[in-house]
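Key result, reporting period 2: structure in, sequence out.
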């Protein structure tokens, strides 16, 4: 009986160590989950920033298109002036 009781005590000590380890794992899991939540928030911020960049790029492309139209008008005007100069 003494050996059985000693074995039971050993098992209880071992169980206590396992439970302590489980608590540490749960705490670590909590930290990991918090880190994942932080990453998701940062990803959302990056995606919002990307959307802003795309909107800005669209405005730049529209501006470039306007400049090209203006350049075409200038080139047309230059051609007209050259034609008039040739007539003179």
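The corresponding designed sequence is given below.
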């Amino acid at each position: 009986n003494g050996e059985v009781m000693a074995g039971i005590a050993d098992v209880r000590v071992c169980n206590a160590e396992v439970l302590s380890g489980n608590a540490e794992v749960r705490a670590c899991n909590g930290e990991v989950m918090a880190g994942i939540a932080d990453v998701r928030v940062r990803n959302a911020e990056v995606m919002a920033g990307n959307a802003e960049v795309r909107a800005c790029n669209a405005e730049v492309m529209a501006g470039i298109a306007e400049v090209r139209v203006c350049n075409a008008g200038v080139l047309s005007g230059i051609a007209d002036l050259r034609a008039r100069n040739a007539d003179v």
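Residues 64 and 70 are 10 Å apart (CA to CA). The chain has a mean pLDDT of 97. This case is discussed further under Risks and Mitigation.
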